[in-house]
């Protein structure tokens, strides 16, 4: 892994954010929403609206508005919410913290289940366990989050009363209650990823177990457990890193739905509210922050992969 | 063709997937006539009925027959998912094959831009497009197609690049075949197979994405008999009668599983090596 590869990857993150910023700015420019009307209300006089538009720079050419917005973003200023009148940045970053808590727990939970499931299915290929795991994964992939969330709330929260049906308690405030509130959202948002990743791990490991070097290890007389751990898993789990990183994009989408259903004050819920209220600065900043999170996670995964697998020589 | 069908139906995924998909397509074509009741007829005296008797799957909060609503909703749900996948694939194929054809720096620039767009989650992309165009079924279709575009562009590009380098294409060129023959007889069949597999699996994703958009209030609008919308509306009446919610959820899941299984079956059947 050379320094120029890392630099190239970092340049790619900035290119990604540049494209996303153009896209989201373009979309919000075309959105049928008038910031001045939103701030002053429907009954404002034409003169007052015009004066506000002038002071907000809404009458400037679009490229000037874009440069002003990105100039602010680079300095950490994401603008002011049209709905609340508060600065967008601090509110969204604290919401991002909540979402990341949910995301990190979900990823951990997903890996803890998906990896063993995939490995066991690959070892027991064609037997009942394998069929059972693929049966589960077909069902898991086919259930949208809003369906699993609603059913989970119905059975586990309402009928059995084991867990709270909605809401969020910060872990720093009350760890026990915080975790209890996180269980259902974490499970719901993980299901599709568990199904996807366990299938990927299974097929990678099945491929690896059929390679010549595994056969050679068998012929050398190594024990099955040693072959599986030292040769099979090492080579099968490496590609899983990339797959998991790409799934983070899916996770961020799922987080939107789950936060909405379980009333979790994260960035997904903030974005949904902003989209419904046509709160342009919040939409712009929210999409940009989500894209940045995705890019940084994938960058980290690539570095991790290259560090683990010394054979890879990127240029 | 019969040989291909036999291979497809020989695998359990292919067999079950084909059966479910044929059933779903049949419901989409004839569901409106098969429905035992008028899907929009309200009956004040027959609200929240449990499954059984005159109402096979029960009735909803307005006394509408759930089975009839599911059957008549099949057409819009399935047609929308198929059309959105098709449109997304076409848009993606233009970008992907164009990029592969141009090659070099253009290819690099186009693919890095496609990667950049993929940093926006598909659901968020669809939400943005719908909020731009207004909440309606047709706009949701366009939104899902646009959300699918970058992924399909990557796949078509990868496929087009590998096929172009294959020996049988070089052999056809060496034999002196015309470009039309090479494109139609040598390249196209090999390009189409992986794309059809990907499309089939994407249809199930599209069904779920549409349902989610409707659920969030940005897809089909009431009183449409849309499956996602039915789940969304039923949540309020969960405690009165969970059946209103469970049946459309089950149908969404079965449809998604069916297309997933068929996709995997097609992959095995089109790729006899494994």
From TrEMBL, chain B:
**GO CC: one term?**
plasma membrane
Q: Which domain of life is it from?
A: Bacteria
Task: List residues of the ABC transmembrane type-1 domain.
Answer: 74-263
How does the UniProt record describe the way this protein sits in the membrane? Answer: Multi-pass membrane protein
PROSITE patterns named in the record: ABC_TM1
A Gene Ontology biological process in which this protein takes part is:
transmembrane transport
Where does the record say this protein resides?
Cell membrane
Give TM segment ranges.
15-35, 78-103, 123-148, 203-224, 244-263
> What keywords would UniProt list here?
Cell membrane, Membrane, Transmembrane, Transmembrane helix, Transport
Main location class: membrane
Pfam families this protein is in? BPD_transp_1, OppC_N
Q: Which SUPFAM superfamilies match?
A: MetI-like
Which family does the entry's similarity section mention? Belongs to the binding-protein-dependent transport system permease family.
| Name recorded for this polypeptide | Peptide/nickel transport system permease protein
Task: Give the classification, highest ranks.
Answer: Bacteria, Pseudomonadati, Pseudomonadota, Alphaproteobacteria, Hyphomicrobiales
């Amino acid at each position: 892994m050379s320094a120029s590869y890392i630099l190239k990857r970092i340049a790619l993150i900035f290119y990604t954010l540049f494209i996303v910023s153009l896209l989201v700015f373009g979309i919000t420019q075309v959105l049928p929403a008038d910031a001045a009307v939103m701030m002053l209300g429907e009954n404002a006089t034409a003169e007052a609206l015009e004066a506000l538009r002038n002071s907000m720079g809404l009458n400037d050419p679009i490229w000037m508005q874009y440069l002003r917005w990105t100039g602010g973003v680079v300095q950490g200023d994401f603008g002011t919410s049209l709905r609340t009148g508060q600065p967008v940045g601090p509110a969204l970053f604290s919401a991002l913290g909540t979402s990341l808590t949910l995301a990190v727990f979900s990823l951990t939970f997903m890996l803890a289940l998906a990896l063993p499931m995939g490995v066991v299915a690959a070892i027991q290929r064609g037997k009942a366990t394998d069929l059972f795991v693929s049966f589960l994964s077909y069902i898991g992939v086919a259930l949208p989050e809003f369906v699993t969330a609603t059913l989970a709330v119905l059975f586990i929260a309402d009928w059995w009363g084991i867990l709270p049906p909605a809401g969020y308690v910060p872990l720093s405030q009350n760890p026990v209650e915080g975790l209890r509130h996180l269980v259902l959202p974490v499970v719901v948002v993980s299901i599709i990823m568990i199904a996807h990743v366990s299938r990927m791990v299974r097929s990678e490991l099945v491929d690896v177990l059929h390679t010549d070097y595994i056969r050679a290890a068998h012929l050398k007389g190594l024990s099955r457990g040693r072959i599986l751990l030292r040769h099979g898993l090492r080579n099968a789990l490496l590609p899983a890193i990339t797959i998991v990183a790409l799934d983070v994009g899916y996770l961020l989408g799922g987080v939107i739905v789950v936060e909405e259903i379980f009333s979790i004050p994260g960035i997904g819920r903030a974005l949904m509210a902003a989209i419904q209220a046509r709160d342009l600065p919040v939409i712009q900043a929210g999409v940009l922050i989500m894209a940045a999170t995705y890019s940084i996670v994938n960058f980290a995964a690539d570095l991790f992969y290259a560090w683990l697998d010394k054979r890879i020589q990127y240029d | 063709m019969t040989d291909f069908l036999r291979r497809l139906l020989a695998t359990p995924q292919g067999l079950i997937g084909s059966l479910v998909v044929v059933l779903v397509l049949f419901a989409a074509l004839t569901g409106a006539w098969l429905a035992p009741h008028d899907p929009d007829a309200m009956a004040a005296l027959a609200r929240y009925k449990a499954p059984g008797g005159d109402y096979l799957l029960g009735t909803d909060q307005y006394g509408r027959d759930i089975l009839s609503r599911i059957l008549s909703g099949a057409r819009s749900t399935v047609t929308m998912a198929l059309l959105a996948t098709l449109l997304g694939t076409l848009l993606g194929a233009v970008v992907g094959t164009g990029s592969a054809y141009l090659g070099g720096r253009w290819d690099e620039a186009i693919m890095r831009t496609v990667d950049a767009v993929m940093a926006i989650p598909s659901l968020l992309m669809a939400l943005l497009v719908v909020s731009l165009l207004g909440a309606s079924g047709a706009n949701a279709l366009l939104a899902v197609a646009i959300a699918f575009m970058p992924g399909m562009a990557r796949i078509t590009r990868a496929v087009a690049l590998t096929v172009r380098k294959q020996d049988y294409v070089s052999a056809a060129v060496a034999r002196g075949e015309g470009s039309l023959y090479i494109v139609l007889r040598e390249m196209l069949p090999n390009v189409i197979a992986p794309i059809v597999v990907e499309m089939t699996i994407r249809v199930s994703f599209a069904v779920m994405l549409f349902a989610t958009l409707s659920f969030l209030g940005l897809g089909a609008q009431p009183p449409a008999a849309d499956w996602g919308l039915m789940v969304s509306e039923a949540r309020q009446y969960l405690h009165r009668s969970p059946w209103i919610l469970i049946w459309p959820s089950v149908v969404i899941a079965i449809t998604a599983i069916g297309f997933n299984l068929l996709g995997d079956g097609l992959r095995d059947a089109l790729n006899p090596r494994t």
